[in-house]
Amino acid sequence: MKIKLLAALLLITSASAFAQQQAANRPTMVAGFPVNYSEDSVGNYTLPELLKTSDGKPVTTAKQWTEKRRPELLRLAEENQFGKMPPKPKDLAFHAFDKGTPAFNGKAIRKQVTVYFTKDTSDHKMNVLIYLPANAKKPAPLLMNISFAAYNQIIEDNGLRVGEIWNKEGKKVKADKPTPFGKLNVEQFIDAGIGFATVYYGDIEPDFKDGLAYGIRKTYLKAGQNEPAADEWGAIAAWGWGLSRAMDYFETDKQIDSKRVALQGASRLGKTVLWAGIHDPRFKMVIASISGEGGAALARRNYGETIRHISDPSRYLYQFAPNYHGWADKVNAMPIDAHMLVALMAPRPLLLQTGSTDYWSDPKGEFLSAVAAAPVYRLFGETGPAASATMPAAGDTSLLMNHLGYYMHEGGHTVLPEDWKLFISYMTKFL
pLDDT band at 181, cuts 50/70/90? Predict the structure, then answer.
């Protein structure tokens, strides 16, 4: 009887925890605006033409896409969503303060590199951590991750520099406390013959409303400017710009195959790696995890988070170009949508990873985006979900191994340990 009672209590506790998780992933009111989670209320919408040029001509070949349509869409995405970014800075410099130390019982080589964005090396710099397979006979492919935490907080290695992070009060503090993100198993990448690199996003630009005063964007303001112009970069573009500066370093390191570098990030950093990969074709692959609204989820679907929620002054104005927020109340008139962002990665491999209970990020909206973008991949002879494809159930890997892949785990707004194993399978195939 006691065993049955205990089992019942455990079941109730488990059900309660699941209900709490569902509630956390389904806020009903955000920034004073209601949130819809009913498919009956997503509204009617027509996606803007993907395979038709601005002058109305159909796009039927990969050459037409590459030379005509892609540049048009890239410009629209810059001007209306993420903002224009500056080029590689002329004073960019690198300092490898850890040039190759054995790690993980000798199976990896560890490097730590400071990337200086400006001539003044006291500010505007990021630390990049790199692990490479020690037994590699040739330059190694690499997964470049952008993280919410300093790398010493997410990787178990006593040789790591203790970084600094931004706290909730907008101050830089020593990154010497544990994080809710847990530790990442780097050895699984090394065992697969793939290097791993990571950077803390706050090294590039702080993630808060007044972060402009401290981040790299500040150094590009023109005389008399207090904020970016309407079509200039937000924080997401700044984080993506920083990833390109990491790539600048990879191109100088003979132990890294800079032609085989993949990007991975989650949530707003899923949006970041998608935009970084689009804007910088040197990146071979992108794994965009739970990127949601402003990432791979269709904006025209009134489901979960919307541009209106993002654009409230109390939330994420600073992450996008100011022009983006003008579409909050007229999203159906916006000249772009997420299927265009997804298509802009073609023909390079792109994996969209979502979660079945991540209602706020609209996993179905990401799936529909991939379906709508797949015709562009097919122009190049590459695979993507068919127009007749049905949305896979949680855990179904049937669409994972497409050039344009989609995978939804059972769970919410996170990257699970088992997801990394699937990422490695995807990288092994395409990288």
Answer: confident
Q: Whose CA is closest to 362, among 318, 402, 303?
A: 303
* Cα–Cα dist 145/151, whole Å: 10
The number of residues making up the chain comes to: 431
* CA–CA distance, 140 with 131 (Å, rounded to integer): 10
Q: Identify each DSSP E strand in 161-274 by its residue range.
A: 164-166, 172-174, 195-200, 256-266
Q: Judge whether 231 and 82 are in contact, CB under 8 Å.
A: no
Which residues are catalytic, by number? 267, 413
List of residues 6+ apart from 196 with CB closer than 8 A: 130, 131, 142, 143, 145, 186, 189, 190
Using CA atoms, how far apart are residues 279 and 276, in angstroms rounded to an integer? 5
Q: Which residue segment(s) compose the domain that 346 sits in?
A: 62-430
Give the integer Cα–Cα distance in Å for 367 and 312.
26
Q: Which two tokens stand for residue 143?
A: 């997964």
CATH code: domain of residue 74: 3.40.50.1820
Q: What is the dihedral of CA 174, 178, 179, 183, to 10 degrees?
A: 120
Q: What is the mean pLDDT of residues 153-180?
A: 95
Q: Among positive and negative, which fits the CA dihedral 319, 272, 66, 251?
A: positive
Tell me if 11 is assigned to some domain.
no
Burial 164-174 (b: 16+ CB within 10 A, else e): bbbeeeeeeee
Contact status, residue 143 vs residue 195, Cβ threshold 8 Å: yes
Q: Taking 90 as the threshold, does the pLDDT of residue 1 lie above it?
A: no
Strand order in the sheet with 285-289: 93-103, 108-116, 125-133, 195-200, 140-147, 256-266, 285-289, 350-355, 404-409
Asked if residue 75 belongs to a domain, the reply is: yes
Taking residues 99-110, report their average pLDDT.
Answer: 98
**Tens digits of residue pLDDT in 82-98:** 999 999 999 999 999 99
Burial string for 330-359 (b: 16+ CB within 10 Å, else e) reads ebeebebbbbbbbbbbbbbbbbbbbbbbbb
Q: Does residue 39 sit within a domain?
A: no
Q: Is residue 79 part of a domain?
A: yes
pTM over 0.85? The answer is yes
